[in-house]
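Run folding on both entries below.
>entry_1
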Amino acid sequence: ATFDELLKSEYVSPNHVTYGTMMKATARLLPLRSQLRQKWTKKLFEKSSKDGYVGDMFLSWLKEAASPKHYHELTRGRKRQNFPPEWTRNVIERRPAKK
């Protein structure tokens, strides 16, 4: 409900951290192999990829939330480096400074 309100808001919009946090909640709170968990992993992946926010945090939690088969289906069997640029176009992740 809160996430859906966020999506409809004219004042704020989700980013890669928002999507990663929602996937984390899906992985930790919804029962394994439940239809609800599968529904939310799909919904979040479709929305985040459409919005260009498939980041490292999101993918890490997607691997936890989805079965290997479902993960493969959602990512179309691609590795991170082979994702379409549209899926990641808005992700700005901070990297540790090189020493």
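>entry_2
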Amino acid sequence: MAKQTSMVTFTGTIGGVTFYNTSEGPRARQKGGVTKSRIMNDPKYERTRENMQEFGTASHMALLLKHAVRDSLIRVPDSTFHSRFISILSEAVKNDPVSDRGSRVLTPENLAILKGFRANKARSLKSTLNCYYEVSKTDRAVQFTFEELQPQEFRGPSNATHFRLFAEAAAVELEAEEADGVRTESDYLPMELNPGDLSFTLEFEGETFPHKVCMLGIEFFKFVAGKPYPVAKKKYNTAEFV
């Protein structure tokens, strides 16, 4: 790698050499590496091709599942979610106990790896709510129960006046790449709400796919002139797979 030793600087590419800036100053590098044709055909790169195939599978499944719980992800924006999600799904694909390397897929049983995976990397749901909750799943419904919910104990923004709980469930058929989703949300509840139990249920209508993924989350608001506004650019909002 070239390093600048004079006051002359360049940007862009000249003669196959690309000039760019870093925190340590200008740098230059020459194009090189293995060609795509060799990677795709050379027997020495068989393992690389297998990894590429399975990464593509994980990426495809990530798009399917993200679309299934998109409402929750909109409420909890995190620029790192997509890359983290592909990473954990890649691990799930590797856990396929039947298929050969390069042909492994995401199986319904391996969806369990998602439990506890955060939409907001910086904040967990358990530490934010600071209370016990239970998730009960049946073929047609998912029930969420909170015991002694105490908003005063939430670890949220100090200027929030209200909060809202939300949940989303998706019944997925991985082989057919289909998903049916249902979602719900609480009213805007005041942060001064008296401690108490709370529960709500998501119900699927009619026949649905047997394998389900669920997200549960909380978002914070400040009411101004009777209207709710998200607090702190939503960075305190959190949700995770349960």
